[in-house]
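Entry, Tuesday afternoon. Goal for today is a structural model of the target with pyridoxal-5'-phosphate bound, before we commit to ordering more compound. Inputs were pasted exactly as handed over by J.K., no edits. I checked the ligand SMILES twice against the vendor sheet because last time a stereocentre got dropped in transcription.
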Amino acid sequence: MIPGLEDITIDNVTGEALAGAELDVLRLDKIHPVISGNKWFKLKAYLEQTGQRGIATFGGAFSNHIVAAACAAQMRGVPCVGIIRGEEPPVWSDTLKEAHSYGMRLVFVSRTLYNRYKRQTDITGLDPGLADYQVIPEGGTGEPGVTGAEEILHHVPDRDKYTHIVTAVGTGTTVAGIIRAVSPNQQVLGFSSMKNNKGLHSEIEALLLRSISSNFRVVHDYHFGGYARYTNSLPEWMNWFYHMSKIPLDFVYTGKMMFGVFDWIRQGYFPAGSKILAIHSGGLQGNRSLPEGLLAY
Ligand SMILES: *Cc1c(COP(=O)(O)O)cnc(C)c1O
């Protein structure tokens, strides 16, 4: 079960709005319609350890990781359990419906229990029936997730030429892998999709088991109201970006990241001659929860 890594492209974006900066987009969204983008890289090392066991993992009602794990388990023919944060909603999100359609059994647990177990490897206290399952922590975080994310930049032949590498941040696992893979003179910028998640920087340091030098920053200013929320200026901007670049973005992560990149360009953050690599971490199926017709794609 290998998604189409040969389908990854690096697309150059040009236009007046770039004000002379160079922008390339690493299209990880192309590797698979469901196990897309960074999710495949984070799951990879976990799946290598799965064998014939079932998979149990953690996520919220809009988690791309939950859908990706459900799909990966179905492709392997092993059972899969999704432990979902919070009470069961009266109407399931498209994400939950899709995960369920791949055979994932959904278990809704209170936020307190969820937070207690989301990073544990032994979750028999939560459900004794899961003793033989391989437990993947929330969002595929943890060392195997970081190791997998480190491989993302292997798909960029000329990676040393970039001055800045930007990516969207949820748990911080992907950006942790990127930080490991870059050279010290390259700047890494992580655009957080959450509102005021100010603990992220130290969580990423905890994942890397070291403090991070000055070449990394988490940007908190482009959350558009919070995780999986948006104001109308976001889909409008994503349509504009699609018209100029032909690159579709998702509204939870990559749309906010790219909006932030262009805003920083406008503000003159990037010095003349900057070469920016933006990682398109996928997640396009999440756009299905937007009202129809809002996006031009
Ligand atoms: C899950 C996800 C992220 C966040 O990745 P983390 O490793 O949790 O920081 C970013 N972009 C997309 C499209 C995602 O689905």
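The chain is about 30% helix and 15% strand.
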